[in-house]
Amino acid sequence: MRGRSLAATLALAFGVTTLAVFVLVGSFLYLALEKQIKAQDDLDIVLAARHARRLAQELDASKGIREHGERLASTVLGNEAMSMEVFGPDGRMAIEHNAGETFPASGGTAGSAASTASNAPDASVASNGTGDTRDPSDAGETAEAGGVETIAALPPLTRIAASARITEVDIGAWTGRNGAPIRGILADARLHDGDTATVLIARNMSDRWRLLDRYRDKLNIAGAAGVLLAMLLSYLLIRAAMRPLRDIAASAGLVTVNRLNTRITVARVPSELETLVASLNAMLERVDLGFQRLSRFTADLAHDMRTPLANMRGAAEVALARPRSADEYESVLASNLEECDRLSRMIENVLFLARAEHPQFVKHMREFDAVQELTRIAEYFEGIADDANVRVQVTGTAMLTADLELFRRAVSNLLANAIRYTPRGGEITLDARTSAGEVRVTVSNQGQPIAAEHLERIFDRFYRIDPSRSALPSSGSSQGSTGSTGLGLAIVRTIMELHGGTVHAESDAQSTRFVLTFRRV
Predict the structure, then answer these.
(1) Domains along the chain?
(2) Contact predicate 183/170, CB 8 Å
(3) Cβ count near 192 (within 10 Å)
(4) Bias category Polar residues: which stretches (predicted)?
(5) pLDDT, tens digit, for every residue of 460-514?
(6) 196: nearest Cα among 186, 207, 205
């Protein structure tokens, strides 16, 4: 099943993120605009109310309200959404301006106000906003005006005393005719004769709602378009940004079994992918080296196995060339048995190396006295050392945590190798000491030194310093050209790697030293 496109997934993620950002920003802008409009309209209402109060306070008596109606109405002129009503000391409407949708049609409507006003002793004046004065006894015109007859018919508003300051907190809100949102303020004004007139300043907010609705719709359209554009652009940009990945995949596709030396090369690799390219090239380098080692190992194994087989075949052919005595046949069988033993050891060592490289290779770690184990190993090789006329001594003191069997095998391989290349009458030293949180086990022997260029390679499988690849060392041959299977030192290095330690060789004119370094647990 084909997976989802990474570019499409990231583009969708960017689109969702952009949508979330647009929603947050759009909501903030919408609320900020709404708050700013409301604050500005409230300020206009307050200023108009203050101005109307000052004009009313200049009147001598309530009769001046009707006479100066146009002057009072001028406080809201120029803004069709603003309306005003002035009530006399008796609580009845004296003048009104542009109150068409300010109040609901039921409950104190303009019609009832007109009928009551027509029978009132003092006729009130209604202004149509142009300064014309009409007789309020005309019920039809008064109904069209939409005002209320008395203060009692007004929506519940906080009535500001004549001595109190008019502020925004005193503004009330209600729903007018046709569901129009209305905000207004009701304030008293003290006339010169001591009577009190009441001024109502209101504003129809329908135009503001329509403005905010249009603004919201534009935000929605812009947000949707922005999200689609962001998704498209992000997809294209991601596709372009991922081109180096496609180039890396194409370059990696050129690597085959016959071209393991091929490396990933991409022009202008982004800095974020440099580590990936370096890691892939390092992996290919390790694979190439491992394949080369495997090829050399296979070739060396075939060569080393062919030698004893050739010896066995040659001895058998010579023995069968003519009749032989029983002693001669016995000698041939003994020689073939030695070659069989050599093949067995070689196969055993190869199998051990194969098992040791498996990730689930089991180690039985335990703590033991390293010097005591070195002494036991030296006693085991005592007969071989005596035959070679070589002395083996053990020194030092250290406790070590390791796999005991693997430890014995590593030291035994080094000791066997040392006995093989120590001149007669020479001395081999096994030493174990603790230093700087490490346990160092050293096997040193006298003999010809190993050249510096061979000190690391002697731990490779089947590596021999002697170019002749002789199975047995000649007199004075250099140490490191094993006379057995050529795997002894390779096994030592594998054992140390299993323990997380290291092994290295040091050689000079005095002695050659193989040092096993274990980390203390």
Answers:
(1) 35-211 (no CATH), 271-355 (1.10.287.130), 362-519 (3.30.565.10)
(2) no
(3) 11
(4) 119-131
(5) 776 666 544 344 333 333 343 334 556 788 889 888 888 889 999 998 888 899 9
(6) 186
Alpha-carbon radius of gyration of the chain:
54
Place of tokens 């040392």: 418
Do the Cβ atoms of 293 and 286 come closer than 8 Å?
A: no
Structure tokens at 64: 């001046």
Nearest partner of 203 among 241, 170, 238, 176, judged by Cα: 176
- Residue 506: name the closest of 454, 470, 430 by CA: 454
Please give the pLDDT value at position 489: 87
Compute the Cα dihedral for 36, 40, 41, 46 and give only its sign.
positive
As given in the structure block, the two tokens for residue 460 are 């490779």
Q: How many CB atoms lie within 10 A of CB 70?
A: 17
- Per the structure block, which two tokens stand in for 75? 């406080």
Structure tokens at 340: 């069989």
| Segments in 424-519 forming alpha helices (H) | 488-498
In eight-state DSSP terms, residue 74 is: G
